[in-house]
Each structure stands twice: as C-alpha cells, then as structure tokens.
C-alpha cells in the first residue's frame, strides 16, 4: 500500500510539473521529447536554428511526404534547418507501430536520417505539451487536423508559420517560409 501511495504521489507530481511547464512556456525551446531511440530530446538543442516539426504516420496517404522531408533536410541542414518527425497514431490509427518499427520503416522506405521522436499524442487533452502550447498560439486553427501537419519554428523558438497536411514539404510556400527564417 505504501508503494502504491508513493507511486501515485510521484505520478501526480510529474503530471503537475508537465502542466506547469506547458502553461508557462515562452518558446518551443522550453519543451522536450524522447527521441525515437529512447534518448532525451530537448528542443533547446535547436536554439539558433529553424525547426520544422511534422507529425507523421507510416500508413497514411501523406506518408510519401517523408521523401520530400528527407530531401528538405538534406538540402537545408547545413544552412540551419532541422526537420523533426513526430510519429502519432491520432488519426485513424495510421501509426500503430513501436518506435523500433517506425524507425525501421522510415529508414528502409525513405532513408530517413533526420531526428524523430517517440510516438506521441498531438491533439486533444492528452496532447504532448508542445502541441498544447502550439494550439494555444492561435486556437484550434493551427492544431493538427491530420498527419503531416507542419509547424515552422524560428531560431528564437517562436512559431513562424504552419502548414496543413496538403501543403507539401517542398512546396514554394514552405521553402519560402524556411528561407526567410534561416539563420544568417
């Protein structure tokens, strides 16, 4: 019984801390993920760089966008862009795999080598704190409506732009927005 009480207290503290962190966050750099390899992935690592955050899924009609995300990463990583894939199973269960299965799928089918997080929730009350913070920036208008929704974060950790799933990673609109905020 004592262990259950201690476990509950610890879990309550962690959940409370996560809520305080997301509600008091000032920039995207205040958040952290766990990488697909299971390592801590604080977004503060990307201070000074442009960051394209994309919720992904392996069994979606937009899954071929992985090819252009990898191309974008290859073309712009040396200029200060980081592409961050965030697997999510929120839309019709189109990302059912484990982290290992997702990583293998991405590497095998698209030669993905940009950073990816473990699978997280990106919508609703259970959303990862970054996604809750992003939604608070402009209400429900910028919340992901489907897989491959994109957020562009500037070098200071502020939301620079966002793009619906139907806007391809190599579209003129996305490229122009990225080039506008790349570090000089």
Could you give the topology of this structure?
Layout (H helix, E strand, L loop, with lengths): L1 H23 L7 E3 L5 E3 L7 E7 L8 H12 L4 E7 L11 H12 L18 H10 L11 E4 L5 E5 L8 H10 L3
Parallel strand pairs: 3-4
Antiparallel strand pairs: 1-2, 3-5, 5-6
Provide a descriptive summary of the structure in words.
By secondary structure, the chain is an alpha+beta fold. The strands form two sheets. A four-stranded mixed sheet has the order 4-3-5-6, with helices on one face. Residues 5-22 have low confidence and may be disordered. The radius of gyration is 17 Å and the shape is globular. The longest helix has 23 residues, at 2-24. The chain has five helices and six strands, in the order H-E-E-E-H-E-H-H-E-E-H. Helix 1 (2-24) runs parallel beside helix 4. It has one domain (27-181): Glutaredoxin (3-Layer(aba) Sandwich).
CATH class: Alpha Beta
Roughly what is the average pLDDT, rounded to an integer?
A: 89
In whole angstroms, how far apart are the ends?
Answer: 58 Å
How many structural domains does the protein architecture include? 1
Q: Give the second-level CATH assignment, the architecture.
A: 3-Layer(aba) Sandwich
Could you describe the largest sheet, including whether it forms a barrel? 4 strands, mixed
Which key terms come to mind for this protein?
single chain; four-stranded mixed beta sheet; 5 helices; Glutaredoxin; alpha+beta; about 180 residues; globular
